[in-house]
Amino acid sequence: MAAMSGEPILQLKNVCRSYHEADRELTILKDANFTLMRGEMVALVAPSGAGKSTLLHTAGLLEKPDSGDVILGKTSCAQLDDDERTAMRRNDLGFVYQFHHLLPEFTALENVMVPQMLRGLSSKVASQRAQNLLDYMRIGPRSSHRPSELSGGEQQRVAIARAVANAPLVLFADEPTGNLDPSTSSYVFQALEALVRQSGLSALIATHNHDLARRMDRCVTLKDGKIVDLDLRKPAA
Ligand code: ADP
C-alpha cells in the first residue's frame, strides 16, 4: 500500500451549494468541510439524491460553490477564473464516471493519449505512457480496439487509465463500477485500487457498494449538508 503522508491534497472549507428551483431552495452542502490526504482513498457513501455528484463536481472544479473554498494542493481555487479552473481540471484532476464517456471514434490507446497531448506531451511519449497504463490495467492487448469493440468492464478500465494519464493530484470517481455486474465490478475496482495504491494517488470515490467502500481507508457520507465520517462496520441503527 502506498504510504499516506501528512499532507492535505484536497480541502473543502465551509463549502455551501444550493440549487434554486421555482418554488424552493434545495441545500446540498452547508458549511461542509473535508480533507483528503496525499495517498488516501476515501469512499463517499450516501443514498441516491443525497448530493454525491454535487460534492464531486464541486470538489473537482466542475461546479462553483456558492461560498467557501476548495484548496487543491496549495492552490486556493475560490478566486480562479474559468480558464484557470479548466487548466487545473485538465492537468491536476482525473474523473471516472458510471458510464465510460470514451471517444467512440478513437482506439483505447488514443483515448488515453488525448488528455496527455492536450497537456502538451508528444504523441510518442503519450503513446508509451498510454500503453503502460493499459498494460497495468491488463487490457494492453486490446489497446487498438475502439470502445464499441470492448466489454463494459474493459471500457471502464480504459476510462480509469485515461483519468490517471496525467498523474492527477486527485482522482474523482462517481459510481465507477455502478453499471457493471458484481464480478466485473469487483475486478475493475481491484484494478482501480491497485493503480491508485501503486501510484500514490489520492482518490474520492462515490459508491453504493459497501463491500467496495470498506476496502478504502475511510468512508464519509453527507448529513445535513456536512461531510461526516461513516463507520460501515457498525450495523445501521
Ligand atoms: P447523488 O449524486 O447523491 O444522486 P446529486 O448531487 O446528483 O445526488 O443531486 C442531489 C440533489 O440535487 C437531487 O435532489 C437532485 O435532484 C438535485 N440537483 C442536482 N443537480 C441539480 C441542478 N442542476 N438543479 C437543480 N437540482 C439539482
Automatic annotation (TrEMBL):
Q: List the lineage, top down.
A: Bacteria, Pseudomonadati, Pseudomonadota, Alphaproteobacteria, Hyphomicrobiales
Task: Give the UniProt entry's GO cellular component terms.
Answer: membrane protein complex; plasma membrane
GO biological process terms, alphabetically, are: lipoprotein localization to outer membrane; protein localization to outer membrane
Similarity comment text for this entry: Belongs to the ABC transporter superfamily. Macrolide exporter (TC 3.A.1.122) family.
Q: What is its EC number?
A: 3.6.3.-
| Pfam family, any one | ABC_tran
Give the Gene3D superfamilies listed for this entry.
P-loop containing nucleotide triphosphate hydrolases
- Residues covered by the ABC transporter domain: 10-237
State the compartments where it is located.
Cell inner membrane
**InterPro entries (UniProt xref):** AAA+_ATPase (IPR003593), ABC_transporter-like_ATP-bd (IPR003439), ABC_transporter-like_CS (IPR017871), ABC_transpr_LolD-like (IPR015854), MacB-like_ATP-bd (IPR017911), P-loop_NTPase (IPR027417)
Q: Does the keyword Chaperone apply?
A: no
GO MF terms, alphabetically ordered: ATP binding; ATP hydrolysis activity; transmembrane transporter activity
Grouped into one coarse class, the protein's main location is membrane
* Keywords from the UniProt entry: ATP-binding, Cell inner membrane, Cell membrane, Hydrolase, Lipoprotein, Membrane, Nucleotide-binding, Translocase, Transport
* Protein name listed in UniProt: Lipoprotein-releasing system ATP-binding protein
Task: Write down the top EC class of this protein.
Answer: hydrolase
Entries under SUPFAM superfamilies matching the protein:
P-loop containing nucleoside triphosphate hydrolases
